[in-house]
Amino acid sequence: MRSRGAWLVARFAVATCVAVVAPAGAAAQATGQVPPRSTAGSAPRDSMTDPLARALDAEDKGNLKAAAVAYREAMLQAMQGPNVDGDKIAFALLGLERAWVEQGVLDSLVPVVGRVLQLRPSDPVARGIQLRTLVAMGRDDEARASFMSWRRAAGADGQPFREYARLLMQQGRTLAADSLLNDAARLLGPAGALSGETAQLHVALQRWNAAAQAYREALRDQPWIETTALFGLSRAPAAARDSIRIVLLAPPITLPPRRLLSQLEFAWSEPRRAWQAIAAVKGDDSTAAAWRAFGERAELNESWLVARDAWTAVFTLRGDLESQRRAAEAALRAGDAAGALAMVRRAGTGDAAARAKALLALEVAALAEAGQVDEARTLLDKRGSALDAEARAALSRPLVSAMLRSGDLARARAAMQAGDLDDDDELAGVLALYEGDLATARKRLVRAASQRAELVDALGILARVRLDHSPALGAAFLALARRDSAAAATQFTRLADSVGTAAPALLAQASRLRPPAQAVPLWERIVRDHARSPEAPEALLAWARHLRDGKDAAGATARLEQMLLDYPTSALAPQARRELEQLKGRVPPAPAI
Q1: pLDDT digits (tens, 9 = 90+) for 495-542
Q2: H-type alpha helices, 171-207
Q3: N or C: which end of the chain has fewer CB within 10 A?
Q4: Cα separation of 491 and 46, whole Å?
Q5: What are the pLDDT digits (tens) for 374-421?
Q6: Could you check whether the bond before residue 252 is cis, i.e. omega within 30 degrees of 0?
Q7: What DSSP string describes 376-406?
Q8: What DSSP line would sit under 260-305, residue for residue?
Q9: In 461-478, which positions are buried (b, 16+ CB within 10 angstroms) versus exposed (e)?
Q10: What is the 3-state secondary structure (H, E, C) of 468-486?
Q11: Distance CA 272, CA 593 (A)
């Protein structure tokens, strides 16, 4: 396999040589001193005569035979004379390895490398190539002898153990690698520089506690191994994760192991634990950077509560405007209006007036979300006079949303007209929905293409309801917006008999708003009266889960079997099949997502 990194190193070396030589010639011309004409014994090495340059050029063009010849010439040239050029020998050997591996003549490397080792017994590049070649060719006895020879030449250096262990693990020979690393620990002391390889071996053997300990040891001197550790440890089964947590949470509290654990908790779908892991680290510049990265990842995962906590910690440490804004935004998205309001009113660094102006929209939104509409309106009138019409309209939007949720529809309509928000499809659609104008709501909400869950549910029901006007249905949605789930569920249930084929959609919506014990009659009604509706398999699956949680395994099994028999093509069938197998003890429970 071609060593791309070595190829780039070789190219960089050649470019550096050209950059160093070129100014010398230019300086000579500038001073009028012309270099003496070279003799046959000291010809200048330009790009046509230098074998290393010719080798790179031939390799670029895909002429591997010519490249191999030139690389070998460069190696022999570097080995001649009193001053042996070790760097050039290394570049040439790596080039030869690439060329001959692709040509399928790997065995040609063995005598060439042996010749280099006669001159340079401890050359790490030559030793590594020799070991790789013998292992790849399956010449295990010779590979072992090569390793022993390298170990004697290297003394206390752990490189021979590291290289040989990696090769063995790549071949799947984990027990041989384990024995080798045990020898390294005995001869060289504690794992130290080999802890990374030891950790990878423990992962391969599924020794998760030992792997976590080795990775923690390796992170002290090899911070770049964090990605490898994350990849390896994230595959640990749920039963082994607590032992990994114990290792990485152990004192002393330092950033690398805590950051690794935080990333692991995210991979295991535990965002709250992820934040707790990294929150305990002492605050400094490195910790602030880690908290920022955590906050950004939490935002991408829409884990708004832990994103709020992370950005709040950054703001407490730094007092900057960005972290204050993002903490308040995360709090709003998490439904914590009071926390958002408290955050935007905290003092920070920089100009206070500019900060207040930058946070005005968030403060208005937080007040509106908290139901303090009058205070939000007063704040907007007081501090929003310097804003243009477009900015004021944007700030008026959360006020209108708060009025709609409170049921003050007339005031919301007046505010929309005053704020030039009549063209806002989402607000106009919600207003029409709450007023019972289903035709307008259907048209405006489809155009709005909102991703808000409550509006997506509303559109799903509107698509099934054939009525153009229904104040009662609008009142049900308004009760839902005001978080009065009991009243909303009662209203949806009452209306089910008057909406024709949309009845199962309303019954399913009502069942989601009720506790499971109270939803059973609704599930029964959906399955009995609307067996052909898409809500019927959903009702059976929810019913089965309720019975399972209540320790009624027989009842849950009956509902799951009914679902799989009556609705085998449902999108929920794979979930039902797995839960049925779990009930019958065939497979272990799936990890929570």
Answers
A1: 998 998 899 999 999 999 999 999 999 999 999 999 999 999 999 999
A2: 174-188, 195-204
A3: C
A4: 88
A5: 888 888 878 776 676 677 777 788 888 888 887 888 888 888 887 677
A6: yes
A7: HHHHHHHH-TTS-HHHHHHHHHHHHHHHHHH
A8: HHHHHHHHTT-HHHHHHHHHTSPPSHHHHHHHHHHHHHHHHTT-HH
A9: bbebbebeebeebbbbbb
A10: CECHHHHHHHHHHHCCCHH
A11: 14
The yes-or-no verdict on residue 193 having pLDDT over 60 is no
| Amino acid symbol at 362 | L
Cα dist. 263→238, 299, 323 in Å? 16, 14, 21
Which pair of tokens denotes residue 152? 């004697």
At CA 481, angle to CA 464 and CA 381, rounded to 5? 130
Q: Hey, CA dihedral for 427, 428, 433, 438, is it positive or negative? A: negative
What is the value of pTM for the model shown? 0.63
Q: Which amino acid is at 335?
A: G
C-alpha to C-alpha distance for 259 and 249, rounded to whole angstroms: 10
Distance CA 231, CA 419 (A): 52
- What domains appear along the chain, each with residue ranges and CATH number? 424-514 (no CATH), 515-593 (1.25.40.10)
CA distance linking residue 309 with residue 186, whole number of Å: 46
Go through the chain and tell me how many residues it has: 593
**Contact indicator for 361, 395 with CB cutoff of 8 Å:** yes
CA distance linking residue 43 with residue 39, whole number of Å: 6
The residues, ordered by sequence, that sit 6+ positions from 234 with a Cβ below 8 Å of its Cβ are 264, 267, 268
